[in-house]
Predict the structure.
Amino acid sequence: MKIKLLAFAALGALMLQPLTGTPSVAQDKEVRVGFLGGLSGGRGIFGKVQKEGFELALDHLGGKIGGLPTKYVVADTQNKPDVGRQQMDKLIKQDKVHFVAGITWSNVLAAVYKQALDNKVFLISTNAGWSQLSGKRCNPYFFRASWNNDDTPEAMGQALQGQVENVWLLAPNYQAGKDMVSGFTRYYKGKIAGTTFFKLGQTDFQAELSQIRAAKPGSIFTFAPGGMGIALIKQYKAAGLDKTIPINTAFVVDYLTLAAFGKSAIGNRHASFWDPTSINPANVRFIEDYKKKYGKHPTMYSVQGYDAALLMDLGVRAAKGNLSDHDAIRAGMRTANINSPRGGFQFNNNHNPIQNYYLREVVAGKDGNPTIVTRKTVFRGHKDAYHTQCSMTW
């Protein structure tokens, strides 16, 4: 691979040139790409698997984007908005990147997006689905390789509509959590037995479980990523609530967390845009090569990172390597003509994917260990709820 991977800590000493003009200039002979992810601490695992998917795609592209040599710089937001702003500033001013991919959390995306877009740097979210960037704040330089926050819970709401009489909602008290609740209730029209917004990072749910036990809802829907979800489901199982009140999730259970959950994940139902059982050749190759490279099963987050690199390649090829031709790069990426593990998808006018969503379930495999199967397609070609608020047309 001809990618130059630079340790971000060393960049200050190596690159001291001030920013002059737009980062993309016609005489550039290389593509400069930044991966800006939350890579530190327990929540860093989400950023790491997105980064792994991105780097696998670079392998598949032969270490080049659009056929050009590629400089690849990694920056860690530490999952903090203020650190994210500092690192984005370095990527733009010191590294003069043409593209930035990454960002796990909506609050970090909200803190850094203007830096990239104001400098006409293409920003591709490989996770964060902050809804405001899908509507009035949509921008020609912003794309998603993931989803709008509302989309996945909309699929879960649709799956439970008519199946369960009342549902209790739990989500962390920040923007993404509020988007999840909004999305679920947009499609689920049954009774909401109760809604709890808990502290971001919370791992003790005894008070919430007592409320749920007393209310006796027909089901639970929760968005509780990372350690929050692992703690919640284990405590839920330990309390015996799963025997009478099924728990359904979004962004809690995936191959990323199966090992941590163990058999306590069996029976969990959740929605996702990715069907890991698909025999689509691009998906089969992706899974096999990911396992070879990293020694583990890929996750939906890895798919998002993988596709971001393919979209960059698509854009640069459409511009025939002219990195100053932003219109051609954008037009190329808008076609979404890539071999994605998720299968074919399109971009809407707001640069959100129009894609399928599946109901998945964790079951015991032949060896007794948990594995994920796809039960049905909930939505085909699903559009987010905010695209009509976006002024972009094409």
The chain has two domains: 30-147+278-344, 151-272+357-382. The radius of gyration is 21 Å. Residues 300-318 form the longest helix (19 residues). The CA atoms of residues 101 and 157 lie 30 Å apart.
